[in-house]
């Protein structure tokens, strides 16, 4: 039961108790304090081991093992978790844009219409609302609005393409490969997501 007993303290010991020396006891506790776990060896005596790589690994008295069925389950779980992580990060980034999307689309359309008309006449409401606090003329504001809209569309296109890379996970053979690929994809998504995080502030 992975517990220590002292005959000087405990009057009754479990039938399967295994005697160890004080030195062995101290070594086991020292290893445990460093993050290792105490497991039963093949001879029944406690040994130090690294923590189980996953909740599906089984201890055989010497090392952690993973049978074929457990490996398949672990792979499926890793794919699901990786897919969720990628989708959730992109979804969070999109929300910064979709929060005020009707406003962005209206401003872009008014800017493009105003630009098409040669920036003549009174500026549309959305263009004027952008120009005044920015200290820009209506025509300058129009160019900025259009450039921002084009850039935002390009950035979201990149983000969408990266999100589709989640399907790469299904072609991998081990959970470790899936976790590595997921980390790589997330690392590419984060800088773009951070840029979108500035939208709408």
UniProtKB/TrEMBL annotation:
<protein>
    <submittedName>
        <fullName>Uncharacterized protein</fullName>
    </submittedName>
</protein>
């Amino acid at each position: 039961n992975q517990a220590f007993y002292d005959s000087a303290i405990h009057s009754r010991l479990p039938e399967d108790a295994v005697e160890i020396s004080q030195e062995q006891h101290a070594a086991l506790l020292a290893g445990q304090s460093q993050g290792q776990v105490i497991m039963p060896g093949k001879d029944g005596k406690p040994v130090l081991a690294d923590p189980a790589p996953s909740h599906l690994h089984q201890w055989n008295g010497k090392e952690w093992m993973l049978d074929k069925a457990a490996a398949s389950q672990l792979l499926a779980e890793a794919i699901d978790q990786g897919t969720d992580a990628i989708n959730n990060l992109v979804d969070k980034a999109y929300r910064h844009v979709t929060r005020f999307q009707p406003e962005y689309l209206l401003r872009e359309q008014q800017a493009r219409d105003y630009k098409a008309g040669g920036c003549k006449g009174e500026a549309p409401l959305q263009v004027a609302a952008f120009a005044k606090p920015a200290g820009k003329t209506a025509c300058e504001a129009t160019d900025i609005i259009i450039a921002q809209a084009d850039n935002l569309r390009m950035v979201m296109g990149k983000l969408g393409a990266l999100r589709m890379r989640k399907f790469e996970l299904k072609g991998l053979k081990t959970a470790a490969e899936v976790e590595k690929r997921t980390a790589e994809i997330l690392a590419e998504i984060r800088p773009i997501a951070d840029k979108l995080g500035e939208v709408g502030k």
